[in-house]
Every structure is written in structure tokens, then in C-alpha cells.
């Protein structure tokens, strides 16, 4: 298993650096910062933000709408493994309680966010209501890191938290696709996306395996793998992304249809597992190749999205924080208890029901995905900046998690040396 610092540097350090630089820049010279974010790469381009009858490709669009598609594709890969593989972590009875807890970790924040907004009055409610999904997000990397600190690497609550975060990601992708379109909907363009995914699956995945039936040396599959490698899937990915952009759905989700079409091993060792590096099926090879580029992309994502002036704090800031820090623990505890006790689905051996409260605080770290949702839920301006500040301040949930772990007497369980 990773040591905590190695894990942090592998998955999160560049993102943190980008976010800190953005905060520093936006609060010392906001004019140059916003000019940088909206820098025009290509006006009247075939892709980009649609306005006044034409598209403009800006630096912000390049990172948020094009390059972040690689990040969401990696997340989708983990979700796909968890759902489709025989021993997938989101299959069977073992996943039932985490899935219930995931539902609580979404309905709880939504209820707190919209409920408090309603109590603040109709003007506030109307201004912030579209941000209801911001506090539903859980940042997998940071929550996993904090979970290991609070519970210890060998505690069953860490795996429970990881299952919850993966399921949360899956639900978040669905929410983004349905509730946050990037423009007027033109669903016929999705035929291009799913058609490209289906075609590349049939021609370069299913057909070679079908032709190799009964042949131990698998000549056709081997030829495709050696000579074409990822190229057909890259072409399909570009077509799929373009179809999403033209359909009005958020283009950052544009690679999702292609992920299931890529050849995959019949096993997986789990999210963030070192053993994954020893799998050589094409889907894992592509993921390994994308790892470092995606780290750089996350740096620019932090740089282009976290630049919020401290004066931007407002109603949306406190609503996002309340949804995360109050709604998450309450929702996860309530739904997790219902699944474990009345429905008798149980919880992993070595976990206590009260540990669900601590898991709720850990999963309240929204950061990356909350920032992304805030950027699409509101147009640029004061409300968006205030919501982003709430996503950034959700880092405070890490401190609350550590304190809650002490108060609720979490027994840390580290991995045995042999592991």
C-alpha cells in the first residue's frame, strides 16, 4: 500500500499547488488572473463555448470541457470495474450498505442546502437553488487520504469509504449529464457518441475475439493489439466527445461511452492499488499512460477554477459547507443505519455504526468535483465564486474528521507488515 506522502504526491499535490497559486493570484491581481483564465486560443473555432452564433475556444474551455474528460474517463473506468466485474466492489450484498449510505450522502446535503436556502428567503433561494448538487460530491483522492489517517490503512471503514466515494462518483456523473447540460439539448448527436463506441467495440474488440475462438495464440486479437493499440479507441473518443458537445450535455463526460468498449481484464485489484500496474489489458495500459498527464491537467484545473477572491464569500459559501459538513454525516448515518439494522444488510466486521458519522465527515471533502459542479451550476460571477469558496473550504472537513475520530474513539487499524 502507499505511504500517505507518496499517495498525496501521486494523486493530489499538483492539484493543491494549482489551487493555492490560483487563490494567491486572484487575491493579489484579480484582473490579470481572470484575463488568463478567459484567454482566447481560437475564436470562431469548430469547438468551444457557443455564443453569438459561433464558438470560441478559451483556455478555461480547453481544461474544463476537453482535458477534464480524461479525468472523468479514469473515474468512469473505476466505476465500470466496480459494477461489471464478477468480484466488482459495487456488486452483491457487500455493496448494499455502502450504496444506501451513498444515497444518504447525496440526499442529506441536498436537503440541508435547499432547506437552509428556503429559510433564507425567496431571493436567496432563487439565486442559489441551481447549486444543489455541489455538496453531494466526494473527492475520492482526498477523502481516501484522510480516511487512512483517521482509521488507519487496515480499517474496514477505509474500504467502506472508498466504495461510497466510487458510487458517489457514478451518481455525480449521472447528475452532471441530466441536470447540468452545457447548452440547448440536441440528443440526436448522442447517436454519434454511442454509435462510435459500439462500432469500435464490435470491430476492434468483439470481432477479433470471436475470430480467435478456439485458437490459443489469439492471432487476430494480438494483431489488433500490436498494430492498432489504442488508436481506434482514441478516434472513437474524439467522435464521442464531439457528439456530447453538440448534444448539449457537458462535454467533459464525452468519453464515458467509449470506456466500456475497451478490452479489459476479467479482474481488478481496486482503486489506487499498486497491483493495478501489473495488469496489461488495454484499458489498464491506457489508464497508466494517462496518470501523469491527468495530474498535470488537475494542476491547471485547480489554477483555472480555484481563483476566488476571499471577499467573494456569501450565502452560497455557507450553504455548500452546511450541505457537506452537516448533510453528509447525517445522511450517511441515517441511510447506513437503515440498511445495516432494520434491513439487516449489516456492516463490515470491525466497523461500528457510529463510524458512519466519521465516514460522513471524511466524505464531506468535496473539493475537485464540487469545484467542477460549481463552475457549471452558476454563470461566472459572485454566486459562482461564493460556491467555489465553499468547495475550497470543505478541506476543513479533514480537521473535523480527525477530531470526530478522537471523540468517537475510533480504533485505528494499520496494515500488518506482511501486507
Question: Can you walk through the features of this model?
Answer:
This protein is mostly helical and 419 residues long. It is 63% helix and 3% strand. It contains 17 helices and three strands. A three-stranded antiparallel sheet has the order 1-3-2. A hairpin with a 2-residue loop joins strand 2 and strand 3. Helix 4 crosses helix 8 and helix 4 (59-84) packs across helix 12 (282-305). The chain is globular, with a radius of gyration of 22 Å. The N and C termini lie close together (8 Å).
User: How does the major sheet shape up?
Assistant: 3 strands, antiparallel
Q: Regions with pLDDT < 50 over 5+ consecutive residues?
A: 1-5
Shape, principal axes of CA atoms = globular
Structural class of the secondary structure composition? mainly alpha
Can you list the strand order of the major beta sheet? 1-3-2
Q: What distance lies between the first and last C-alpha atoms, to the nearest angstrom? A: 8 Å
Amino acid at each position: 500500500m502507499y505511504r500517505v506522502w507518496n499517495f498525496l504526491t501521486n494523486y493530489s499535490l499538483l492539484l493543491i499547488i494549482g489551487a493555492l497559486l490560483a487563490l494567491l493570484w486572484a487575491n493579489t491581481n484579480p484582473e490579470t488572473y481572470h484575463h488568463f483564465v478567459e484567454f482566447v486560443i481560437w475564436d470562431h473555432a469548430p469547438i468551444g463555448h457557443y455564443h453569438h452564433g459561433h464558438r470560441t475556444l478559451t483556455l478555461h474551455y480547453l481544461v474544463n470541457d476537453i482535458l477534464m474528460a480524461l479525468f472523468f474517463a479514469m473515474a468512469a473506468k473505476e466505476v465500470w470495474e466496480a459494477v461489471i466485474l464478477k468480484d466488482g466492489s459495487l456488486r452483491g450484498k457487500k455493496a448494499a450498505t455502502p450504496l444506501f449510505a451513498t444515497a444518504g450522502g447525496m440526499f442529506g446535503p441536498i436537503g440541508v442546502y435547499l432547506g437552509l436556502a428556503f429559510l433564507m428567503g425567496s431571493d436567496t433561494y432563487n439565486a442559489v437553488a441551481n447549486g444543489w448538487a455541489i455538496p453531494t460530491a466526494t473527492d475520492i483522492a482526498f477523502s481516501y487520504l484522510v480516511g487512512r489517517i483517521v482509521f488507519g490503512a487496515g480499517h474496514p471503514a477505509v474500504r467502506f469509504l472508498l466504495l461510497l466515494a466510487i458510487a458517489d462518483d457514478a451518481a455525480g456523473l449521472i447528475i452532471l449529464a441530466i441536470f447540468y447540460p452545457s447548452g440547448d439539448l440536441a440528443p440526436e448527436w448522442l447517436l454519434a457518441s454511442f454509435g462510435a463506441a459500439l462500432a469500435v467495440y464490435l470491430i476492434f474488440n468483439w470481432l477479433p475475439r470471436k475470430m480467435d475462438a478456439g485458437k490459443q495464440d489469439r492471432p487476430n486479437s494480438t494483431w489488433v493489439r500490436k498494430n492498432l493499440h489504442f488508436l481506434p479507441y482514441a478516434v472513437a473518443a474524439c467522435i464521442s466527445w464531439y457528439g456530447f458537445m453538440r448534444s448539449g450535455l457537458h462535454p467533459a463526460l464525452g468519453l464515458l461511452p467509449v470506456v466500456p468498449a475497451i478490452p479489459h481484464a476479467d479482474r481488478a485489484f481496486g482503486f489506487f492499488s499498486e497491483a493495478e500496474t501489473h495488469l496489461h489489458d488495454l484499458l489498464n495500459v491506457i489508464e497508466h499512460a494517462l496518470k501523469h498527464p491527468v495530474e498535470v491537467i488537475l494542476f491547471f484545473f485547480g489554477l483555472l477554477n480555484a481563483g476566488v477572491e476571499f471577499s467573494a464569500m456569501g450565502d452560497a459559501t455557507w450553504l455548500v459547507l452546511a450541505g457537506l459538513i452537516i448533510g453528509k454525516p447525517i445522511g450517511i448515518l441515517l441511510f447506513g443505519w437503515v440498511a445495516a439494522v432494520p434491513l439487516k444488510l449489516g456492516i463490515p466486521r470491525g466497523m461500528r455504526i457510529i463510524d458512519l458519522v466519521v465516514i460522513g465527515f471524511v466524505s464531506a471533502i468535496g473539493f475537485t468535483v464540487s469545484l467542477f459542479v460549481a463552475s457549471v451550476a452558476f454563470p461566472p460571477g459572485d454566486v459562482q465564486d461564493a460556491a467555489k469558496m465553499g468547495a475550497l473550504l470543505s478541506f476543513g472537513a479533514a480537521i473535523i474528521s480527525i477530531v470526530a475520530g478522537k471523540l468517537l474513539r475510533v480504533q485505528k487499524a494499520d496494515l500488518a507488515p506482511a501486507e
